[in-house]
Predict the 3D structure of the following.
Amino acid sequence: MLLTSTLCLASLMLGATAEAGALKVSDSSAKTTSGEVNSIRYDAKHLRDGKQSTVWMEGEDGSGLGSYVELRLNEPAVVKQLRIWNGHWYTYDYWQRHSRVKELEIEFSDGRKQKVTLTDEKLPETINVDSPAKVEWVKLIVRSVYAGNTYNDTAISEVQLIGDGGPSAVPVSAYRHSTTYPEDADGNYLGANVEDEIKDSMWCEGVKEGDGVGEWLEADFGNARNIGKLSILNGNGTSFAYFKKVNSIATATLTFSDGSTEKIAVKAMPLPQSISFPAHNTSSVRLTVDTVNKGTEFNDLCVSELYFYE
């Protein structure tokens, strides 16, 4: 089931939302030393689409050593972490074919520099910033690469700058789900995908004959919190076209750790929506699907993003 975008464009996403502390970046300040491969543009205009299936790619001769991306924050802020989707995440095949960054130099507007070695795995990687301080921009410079098996062009799919900005969702220590769609060429569909701020990375149920009714996703907070609101990107949030193809939630039941419940209705739209309900002191919330909006192509239910708030 191909649930991700089929567009071979480019992006480097930095904080499209602030659900998990991602900092917002000015639309006009992203800079790259290059961004064109075989007459296809992979440049700054694609940097913030929040999709792992689209990438930034250097377009220099060779593997792009010395190529960089510079991103300027909307306002000066403390950057504590960087989260990177290294390589071309369109599919596993594309990831293997294109080069990935190995040694990355991170330069900050205050003159600090930090060098890190990224792992050669198709997994999001978090980098802790040494001595975090308030900065205006961050530059990522390619110093060495893991060679692709077909192409010599180096790609990065997504980057998030993490700080203290934005409303913070309640941290989730573990996700559980009734079932999950089998991993395929696009990646996995595990419950943890609902908090990565990526629109084309999602949880999908995997009951072959079912439409998602009765399936559930549970967030475990590890300790009791007063939960009274959630934010959800329903269905496949990649685009409106992809949203229509798969099932999405129409109504659901929230079950709290003491056994109490609340009924919610979810709008049929591929945009984030907030839903408030009477607050419950709880260590977990299970969202069970009661009714669904049917997709036009796939009889599988998905949730792209889900966050809980006090």
Q: What stands out?
A: The domain at 174-309 is CATH 2.60.120.260 (Jelly Rolls). The chain has two helices and 18 strands.
